Model the fold of this input.
Amino acid sequence: MKIHKYDTVIVGAGGAGMRAAIEATKRSRTAVLTKLYPTRSHTGAAQGGMAAALANVEEDNWEWHTFDTVKGGDYLVDQDAAEILAKEAIDSVLDLEKMGLPFNRTPNGTIDQRRFGGHSRNHGEAPVRRSCYAADRTGHMILQTLYQNCVKEGVEFFNEFYVLDQLITEVDGVKHSAGVVAYELATGEIHVFQAKSVIYASGGTGKFFKVTSNAHTLTGDGQAAVYRRGLPLEDMEFFQFHPTGIWRMGILLTEGARGEGGILRNKDGERFMEKYAPVMKDLASRDVVSRSIYTEIREGRGCGPEGDHVYLDLTHLPPEQLDAKLPDITEFARTYLGIEPYTDPIPIQPTAHYAMGGIPTNVEGEVLADNTTVVPGLYAAGEVACVSVHGANRLGTNSLLDINVFGKRAGIAAAEYAQKADFVPLPEDPESLVVGQIERLRTSTGNERVAELRRELQETMDANVMVFRTEQTIKTAVEKIAELRERYKNVAIQDKGRRFNTDLLEAVELGNLLDLAEVMAVSALARKESRGGHYREDYPNRDDVNFMRHTMAYREVGDDGTESIRLDYKPVVQTRYQPMERKY
Amino acid sequence: MATPVMDKVQADATASPYITVTFRVRRFNPEVSAEATWEDFQLELDPKERVLDGLHKIKWEQDGTLTFRRSCAHGICGSDAMRINGKNRLACKTLIKDINPEKPITVEPIKGLTVLKDLVVDMEPFFQAYRDVMPFLITKDTNEPTRERLQSAEDRERFDDTTKCILCAACTSSCPVFWNDGQYFGPAAIVNAHRFIFDSRDEAGEQRLEILNDRDGVWRCRTTFNCTDACPRGIEVTKAIAEVKRALITRRF
Ligand SMILES: Cc1cc2nc3c(=O)[nH]c(=O)nc-3n(C[C@H](O)[C@H](O)[C@H](O)COP(=O)(O)OP(=O)(O)OC[C@H]3O[C@@H](n4cnc5c(N)ncnc54)[C@H](O)[C@@H]3O)c2cc1C
Ligand code: SF4
Ligand code: FES
Done:
């Protein structure tokens, strides 16, 4: 075991982690721990764009953007945070441009902008061009640009270090962050990082679904680490299903495709979104479009022999436009489906995409221990966090924005805290939980296999807590997850070595997915209403009287060691906008 | 509007897809043995599946010790460059049907970087070469604009190709010069230098050119085109290197 001491430790090197690192490194001695090489992070997969009311191509302003964000989130958004997001969007895009990001340009040389779902002029009048983009590679450009600037600033990275535990020390009865415990992939060695500030920027948790746009490595490690230490997770029942994943594979085809004029069609060739969203049509918010697709499929208008998908039709768009604006996704269709998007429509289905919920923070990125108390020294930003700027449903292009705005804020806040604070003492045997976990897995002689449990988990999640949910389906999922958690105790791995033991880490990651799946299902069961990404067929309406509030889920351990989940609720911050019915 | 023709995928979807393929994988684990060996695995795969799906099937169903890097599974993170049937490719972007499944499919680590375990190589020298070309925008910033810097669409287009790089190392590890001498910067580093040299906003082109003028710089390139063939992003790597060479001679870029 090795002990390291840093002012600030950042967990994750995607967009949020590196944006934080650029600020923190200038202000404090900073280490970035990341399980992937920074440029492998899933931010690089983002395609469509980053929202900011630059008004480069038509009239726009941050107030309209705030409104769209609040409405898109079905009014579960904390409005003070949404206002910060929309206001600081403009500078955060300009920051990236100055760092070198190669945005697409307008004829007069400014940053070009395009349409995206749910973004409108004047509170829903018509779609507006708000998304700043670089072809359909915006996330790639953001990730590369931030990594380039980390190289420039001399950010210190620990690559292929897996953070597996959060260290908490109570000082005067208040829980403080003391550091983290990490596992080094190359050697199997355990490292304790003592730090004044820790920032989680470890991304999403989509891998508990089967059909997903998320990378194999998005397993919610950060959420699980803090949750296991008794800190709450907020709004975990809200997960976004993106309408256009490649059929059966889940690989994303950006909403930008519809922004450029792409149309969804059922087996009769009908543009069915006209029925469900007369004004915004194919560009209604994602939860609305995903539900419409499944309604078409359920009512027998799906395509293919099994009627289990619909089509994204780009065939009416000029090939030059596809080449210039959507080169990557058209190539995905060619590579993975053998389809030529110039002439053939692309089979798609909704794909599990984005976790709206996560580690609760305030607008400075400080992590909350309950509805109001912060955990000194602990921060979170990006998809792992819940500020909440996305509420019940995130608008497209608002996440690349979120990671930049709140990554920067968390980086500054954490480093400034570290400048003033002292180290808190490490708990006794700080590595013990991780060592115990690793040794148990390495020496287990049980008969359960990681891949089998993961497959069963993904299947139950897809079948029971996806786009449509009922009490019945969610209960089925809860029971199945409980069974899988029991069987997980008997999981054994084949690789017993120390060097690059990815067999072992997949087992650890599965444990995280199981914990988080349970939180999601239990939170979903209790929310007896439909709002944004959470749609209950047995409670099809939004219920502002009982459920205009955030879910806070806590892990409880009884005296006899039994685990359970306790749910509490947190008020939503409302400033300018009163809840209205959502129409697109 | 006419209803698009939709029969293509449907025809494919009804046929019974699975075939038996052999993966012949280069195994190496110094914890077990100092020698690398070949190992064969038989698996059932749909020809439309990826080589990465095959590797996962082996790891998840047959041999959990098989080790490789991967993340996104659709060709954008650059984790899984490997030598498949003797050519550098991304395992997640190579479909079984495109590589003749009738014969054993060989899978080995990329060449020229130290193998650490099975298909995992030491990427540090590769990233070091990248860092050495100062891969970040440098401006004098005497008059930092309040808004964005302007750039015409044509100027933006000038370096578009080299912005696509995902740092997968397929090019560098396919280069015979790099195999013989690991000191050579390698194509990927030059691609990333190109991305800034030809960016109208950058003001450090001269400095970068001096770095590449080095003994281990662009002049080592012998234009074998291996890199261009290998690049999964379709970057015209050899052309980018040629443009850097030309810029070194003319000092115009
Ligand atoms: C295909 C796709 C397209 C998208 N398109 C858009 C778009 O057009 N616009 C938009 O706004 N949003 C988009 N999104 C959403 C957006 O890209 C993500 O939400 C965002 O990039 C997340 O960034 P992040 O920094 O929080 O996490 P990530 O980029 O996922 O980074 C997570 C980091 O954490 C590290 N990590 C994880 N676990 C550990 C651990 N245990 N220890 C150490 N390190 C760890 C990883 O190594 C990685 O560096 C898209 C998402 C997907 C999947
Ligand atoms: S130039 Fe192409 S092959 Fe080389 S590292 Fe970049 S993406 Fe990979
Ligand atoms: S796994 Fe990301 S490029 Fe292949």
Q: What stands out?
A: Residues 243 and 537 of chain A are 19 Å apart (CA to CA). Chain A touches chain B through 75 residues (CB under 8 Å). The longest strand of chain A covers residues 161-171.
